[in-house]
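With this grant's support, we have settled on a layout for protein records. An illustrative entry appears below exactly as we store it:
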Amino acid sequence: MSTSNKTDSAAESTSSNVSKEITVEKDAGKDGTELMKLKESKFYELIDWLKKWGYETKDATKENKTEGIEFQAQISPQLPYSSGLSTPFFLEFQKDLDDGFIIRTTFELDKNIESQITGKELDLTYIELDSLILPKNISMIKSPPLINLYKVIFYDGLSKQFFLDAVTALISSMSIVTGKWNQKSHEKSQQVDSAS
């Protein structure tokens, strides 16, 4: 093969690779648009289910400032906790999760209680929370004073029953966390009263 033929073959190969890359990028853009439409459709379908089940639901997509979240809804549990609080949870579709979504909530723990519970007692409290929440298939991230509860759900073949069960498990886990911290608060106030 002559030098000129090698150069021509290399140029054709490079040209072919460039055109393949351009085609792949166009296809990726097309798939990205279709994926975004699929996520949006599923997002509004899930919001509709929640509303039909009586949950106060607000589309918070436009107000969301967190990078990577494409769609977000804020949902209020149907009943407040015994303390009268009602911590919302969120339904989120994220850019890096193509075939699923997340339901999650974040608690900011009472700093007064947390400062009274130290070391081993705090670790034991978290272990107890884990043992109560993990069987519900809810994950927990502890970064005091915050506790994040979440569940990743894949929407391929998602049934209403599975989604309702996941929402119920998250709300139940939220109640467990609130109840455990209220219990610790009560225990600490009794210890203070006993010491007086």
User: Anything to note?
Assistant: DSSP finds four helices and six strands in the chain.
